[in-house]
C-alpha cells in the first residue's frame, strides 16, 4: 500500500430519514455537505496484514519497566496488538461516529487563496435561542474525544430543547480534515492563527456571526491542548467570538511579575496548585522531546510513523497513558489511533509545532503567549493536566468569570471526565451570556 486512500463519504441510500440534530440553521450562508464515514474494506484488510506482520522490538531493560518512566512498556504493546489484531472491530467505531450528524465544508484561511476542506460533527438545535458552542481538540486528539460529551447532551436534551448548537471540527490537517495540505513552506509556518481563521469562517458560514452580545449573536469556543490555543486566538481576534472556556493554560512565568513578587505569591498557593507547578516543570524538563521532533524533523517522523500501525500506536498511546489521570480504556486508544491510521493524517498533524519551537521565547508553547482574552473567560482545572498552573496565573491571561478546580482528571478532559466538563461548560455559558 503506497499511499492512503481518502475516507469515502457514504450516503444513506436506504434510509433518507434525517438524523436528529442534523438540521442546519436557516441563517447558514454556506450549506455544508452531509458526510458519512466509510473506510474501504481493502484498506482495513491491508491494515490487518500490516499489523500482523509488524514485529515488536526485543525486550530491553527500558521497555520492560512497567512504571513507564522510559515510555510505553513492551508488554502493553504486546497486549494492545493482540486486541487490535484479533478482537477490535473498526466498523463499530465507524458506526458510532456516523450515529452523529457529520458534515464537510470548504472554507478560506487567512494565509492562502486555496480553500481548506473541513470536516465537523454537529448537534444543531431547533431552539431559536440556542447558543453556538465550538469544541476544539488537539494532538493526538480528534472529534472522538468529544463524542461522550455529545452523547450526554443527546440524553439530556431533545433537538427542540437543546440550548446549544454544538460544532466539533476536525482541525485542519487532522483525521477527516486531512485531505488537503495546509499552505506551508520553509519560510512560513501553518500557525494557530491560520487554524483559528478556518474555524472562525466555518462558524460564520453556519450563520453564527453578528458580533453583538446575547444569544444568537455570536459564538463561544472551548478548547484543550492545541485547541486551547486556537480558542484563545479566536477569542482575542474575532468580535464574533463572545466568550472562551479552556482546560489548558500553558504559560511561562506571568508577565509583569518580578521573581520576588512571585516567590511571595507562591506561599498563598494551595497544595494542589504547588503540585501542579511541579508537574509543569517536570513536563518541560522531560516531556517535550516529542514536540521537538514534530517541529524539527516532521518529514522523518511522518514517514516513519505512517509506515506501520504498530509504530503509530506506540507513539500515540504513550501520550494517552502518560497524560491521563487514569489509563483510558484500551478501546478508546485503539479508536483514536485507528482513525489517525485510516485517514493517513499523522504527517500533517505536526504543523503547529514548528511555530511552538521556532519562537525565541522559551515560555511559548501551543501559541498561548501574549493573547489576553478581554471577554468572558472560563477555566476548568484538572490536577493531571500537563501544566495545571495556579488560578492567579490564569487570571492574568483573561477576564476570568468562571473557574472550577477538580480533584481528578487529566489532559483529555472531554474523554476522561465528560460529565464534569459538560457541567462546567453549561455553567460557564450561562454566566458568559449574562456579562
From TrEMBL:
Q: Does the keyword Hydrolase apply?
A: yes
One function term, GO molecular function aspect: epoxide hydrolase activity
Q: What is this protein called?
A: Alpha/beta-hydrolase
Give the residues annotated as active site: 225 (nucleophile), 353 (proton donor), 411 (proton acceptor)
List the residue ranges of the region (Disordered): 1-27
Entry superkingdom = Eukaryota
Matching entries from Pfam families are given as: EHN
Q: PANTHER family per the record?
A: EPOXIDE HYDROLASE 1-RELATED (PTHR21661), HYDROLASE, PUTATIVE (AFU_ORTHOLOGUE AFUA_3G08960)-RELATED (PTHR21661:SF39)
Which organism is this entry from?
A: Lophiostoma macrostomum CBS 122681
Keywords in alphabetical order, please: Hydrolase
Q: Which GO terms describe its biological process?
A: epoxide metabolic process
**Domain (Epoxide hydrolase N-terminal): residue spans on this chain:** 33-146
Q: Where is the composition biased (Low complexity)?
A: 1-18
Q: Which family does it belong to?
A: Belongs to the peptidase S33 family.
Key word Magnesium present: no
Amino acid at each position: 500500500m503506497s499511499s492512503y486512500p481518502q475516507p469515502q463519504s457514504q450516503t444513506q441510500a436506504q434510509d433518507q430519514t434525517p438524523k436528529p440534530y442534523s438540521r442546519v440553521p436557516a441563517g447558514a450562508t454556506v450549506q455544508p455537505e452531509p458526510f458519512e464515514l466509510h473506510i474501504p474494506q481493502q484498506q482495513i484488510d491491508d491494515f490487518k496484514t500490516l499489523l500482523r506482520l509488524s514485529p515488536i522490538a526485543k525486550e530491553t531493560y527500558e521497555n520492560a519497566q512497567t512504571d513507564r518512566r522510559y515510555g510505553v512498556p513492551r508488554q502493553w504493546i504486546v497486549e494492545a496488538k493482540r486486541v487490535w489484531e484479533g478482537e477490535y472491530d473498526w466498523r463499530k467505531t465507524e458506526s458510532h461516529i456516523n450515529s452523529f450528524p457529520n458534515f464537510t465544508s470548504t472554507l478560506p484561511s487567512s494565509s492562502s487563496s486555496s480553500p481548506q476542506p473541513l470536516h465537523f460533527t454537529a448537534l444543531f438545535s431547533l431552539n431559536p435561542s440556542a447558543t453556538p458552542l465550538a469544541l476544539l481538540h488537539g494532538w493526538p486528539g480528534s472529534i472522538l474525544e468529544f463524542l461522550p460529551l455529545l452523547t450526554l447532551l443527546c440524553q439530556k436534551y431533545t433537538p427542540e430543547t437543546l440550548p446549544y448548537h454544538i460544532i466539533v471540527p476536525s482541525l485542519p490537517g487532522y483525521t477527516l480534515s486531512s485531505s488537503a495540505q495546509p499552505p506551508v513552506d520553509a519560510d512560513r509556518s501553518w500557525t494557530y492563527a491560520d487554524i483559528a481563521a478556518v474555524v472562525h469562517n466555518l462558524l460564520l458560514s453556519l450563520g453564527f456571526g453578528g458580533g453583538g452580545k446575547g444569544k444568537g449573536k455570536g459564538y463561544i469556543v472551548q478548547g484543550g491542548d492545541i485547541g486551547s490555543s486556537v480558542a484563545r486566538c479566536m477569542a482575542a481576534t474575532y468580535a464574533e467570538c463572545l466568550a472562551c472556556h479552556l482546560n489548558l493554560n500553558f504559560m511561562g512565568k506571568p508577565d509583569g511579575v518580578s521573581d520576588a513578587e512571585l516567590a511571595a505569591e507562591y506561599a498563598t498557593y494551595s497544595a494542589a496548585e504547588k503540585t501542579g507547578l511541579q508537574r509543569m516543570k517536570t513536563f518541560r524538563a522531560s516531556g517535550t522531546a516529542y514536540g521537538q521532533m514534530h517541529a524539527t524533523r516532521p518529514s522523518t517522523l511522518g514517514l516513519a510513523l505512517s509506515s506501520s500501525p504498530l509504530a503509530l500506536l506506540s507513539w500515540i498511546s504513550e501520550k494517552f497513558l502518560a497524560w491521563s489521570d487514569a489509563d483510558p480504556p484500551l478501546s478508546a486508544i485503539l479508536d483514536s489511533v485507528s482513525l489517525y491510521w485510516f485517514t493517513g493524517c499523522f504527517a500533517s498533524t505536526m504543523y503547529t509545532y514548528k511555530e511552538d519551537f521556532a519562537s525565541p521565547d522559551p515560555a511559548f508553547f501551543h501559541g498561548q503567549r501574549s493573547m489576553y482574552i478581554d471577554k468572558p473567560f472560563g477555566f476548568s482545572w484538572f490536577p493531571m493536566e500537563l501544566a495545571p498552573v495556579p488560578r492567579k496565573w490564569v487570571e492574568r491571561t483573561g477576564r476570568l468569570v468562571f473557574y472550577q478546580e477538580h480533584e481528578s482528571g487529566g489532559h483529555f478532559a472531554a474523554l476522561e471526565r465528560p460529565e464534569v466538563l459538560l457541567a462546567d461548560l453549561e455553567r460557564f455559558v450561562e454566566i458568559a451570556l449574562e456579562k
